Amino acid sequence: MAANNRRMSGKKGAQVGSGGQRRKGLEGKGPTPPAEMRKGHKKNRVANAKAKQAVRRPVARGRGGKSASELVVGRNPVVEALREGVPASTLYVQQFIDNDERVREALQLAAERGGINLMEAPRPELDRMTNGLNHQGLVLQVPPYEYAHPEDLVAAAHDEGADPLIVALDGVTDPRNLGAVVRSVSAFGGHGVVVPERRSAGMTAGAWKTSAGTAARTPVARATNLTRTLEACKKAGITVVGLAADGEVELGDLEALGGPVVIVVGSEGKGLSRLVGETCDHRVRIPMPGGAESLNAGVAAGIVLYEAARRRR
Q: What pTM does this model have?
């Protein structure tokens, strides 16, 4: 009876059958979240209002030199994008989210980067924003990429007193290949990458990640018509070199790589389109004694850029 009386009493302290709940209640809950994430705080109310407006406002399609805004969805993709320095404008976090390591890291990275708005939104709002994708409570908004004009790449080379070294992509639709090409152009002293406006990969979050941060200093230009852009380069005294498995010239024999040049890389499957291939001054093949039929765009561009950089030294 003594035990029962103690259980029913109003005294504080451990109760019979508490199962260690009091001990668990004393465990730390991690660092204090930012003001925007604390329910009832003025900044939290302001952030919620902004989140609702942003979610309901449709994302504008880019015109001219800008692409459309992009959303990175899910805990792992968001954390990876923030780790790789992908430009971001807003990090949306679901209300009452389970605060695991990925959520904490995303909040920490966003705070350390600066310039990234933190907004809390209810799950239905995030569901509408992502069209029902499994966002896991984290959504990162990537602002529109500002493309350069192809003429800007040539002008930048001349300003440096160097011969232009540019890579143009024809029919390459995988953003990871674009990111790899940007990384190679940066590594070997190139002046930028040109992509067609249609049927081509753009500077998405995936391309930014693959570029390993080099997209911040290597411009990507967008051409309304790639063939006309290449013809304009030829008129400006720049040699246009297309990569093709059946090219007439082997890479090591091409002296033109030591001067002003645009290297055109096609897709792994179809290669160069007919009009672009006909526009090239030279069609060059990469010797592959191992018997492989083709290389992806990122690898092929890296090999030719290395050869161009070697000749320029």
A: 0.73
